[in-house]
Amino acid sequence: MNQVKIGRFIADCRKEKHITQAQLAEKLNITNRAVSKWETGKSMPDVSIMVELCGILGITVNELLSGERISMEHYQKKAEKNLIELQEKKEKARKALNRVELIWTIAAVLLAPVHFMINYYYPQNNGTGIGLLILLIGLFLFTGYFLRYYELRLK
């Protein structure tokens, strides 16, 4: 999927209907900045409003994801292509999440013994050790939740 192509298609369909960005945004209960980001290819419409957006613009979701009008002869082929691209994007996001989680796990496993050795030889830093451990756990959890949220946004 080409976000810029999809954005241009949204803009063209909106202009065909003689609707401004502000009017479209109002109908979808979003900001006109969100519509602007779609049309410039900086972001994609959220899945939760795609059907409503397509209804307003008079297009199908398949046409929206393709970024072009689709004839009935090519409709099935384009639908399959869009589904494959979405699945590949989802898989890519899942792999990226797994990589980040693996890196954080390795970092925690490597840093924890080093930290405990420092605390063993320099016991006056006990409070620092506990704080560092809590910080690492917090960062690990936050990163995991953030990436899961980001992955959901990609869907």
TrEMBL record:
Pfam family, one: HTH_3
InterPro entries: Cro/C1-type_HTH, Lambda_DNA-bd_dom_sf
GO molecular function list: DNA binding
Keyword Calcium attributed: no
Sections of the chain in a coiled coil: 72-103
HTH cro/C1-type domain location: 10-64
Transmembrane intervals: 102-122, 128-147
Record keyword Transmembrane helix present: yes
Assigned keywords, A-Z: Coiled coil, DNA-binding, Membrane, Transmembrane, Transmembrane helix
Name the UniProt record assigns to this protein: XRE family transcriptional regulator
